[in-house]
Amino acid sequence: MAFLLAAILSGLIWVLFGSHRILHPIRYKPAVTPEDFGLAWESFRLRTADQVDVSTWLIRHPRPEGLLLLLHGFGSSKAELLDIAQAFHACSPYHLLLLDLRGHGESGGRTATFGFREMLEIQAVLDFIARDPDLKGLPVGCYGVSMGGAISLLAAARFPNIRAVVSDSAYADFGKAVARVQWLTYHIPRIPLGLGTLWVTELRLGCRASTLSPVQMIRALSPRAVLIIHGMQDFTVPSEEARVLFEAAGTAKELWLVPEAEHAACYYKRKEEYPLKVKEFFRDAFLRAA
To answer: What's the pLDDT tens digit per position in 88-113?
Structure first.
């Protein structure tokens, strides 16, 4: 009996710890700025409806044909997207707006909610765009990597003025992604500890995992366009997740699998092709949506 009670107690402690680690990523503040990449930039702090400060960088283009929101992955920051932003800026006629999601980088908040409350950050950014005389009226697209890719899809499903999405290395099902990361990181089995961790995470967030799963929302983007990019050597989020998202999407969809790329590494494996493909995708999507 004592052994059983000790096992149950250990399981409960682990479930609480695992949930805490999921919702509270280690915060890495940017060590570089756009200036380090030769980019002129402006820094803004926006306030969400639930009073979270959002740190943003705006990289303007002299002859813009649109604006792209760039969203980073879990445990990362907007600084991690600067090399991609530099490539986009060099070849694409778009303003670029990079932001730290709540609980990350230089933004406020202590809890990552995987799209549940991050919609308030997206709303604050869209409101900012609508108020700026040089930005309003431009078509808006969203680009995200890993968790940022998933949040990009969720945001576009909610905000119809996001006209197109590029999602790189995103998971399709939030619950399965949590279970896989728990196994890869700590070798915690899905049953019962993985499911227990997910259940506690749902309680803390105040929402079901299905509402944070892009596969449940991606069809709402149609007829807006979506480009799904994924590395076939991705063992963190298997490329099958990209295929699931592609199958669930509506009509205006494109899938690009990069055979040699690992998680969130497609750009680094195809540095010349990647920014041009993203540029052409957004150009065509904005023209169709005009």
So the answer is: 999 999 999 999 999 999 999 999 99
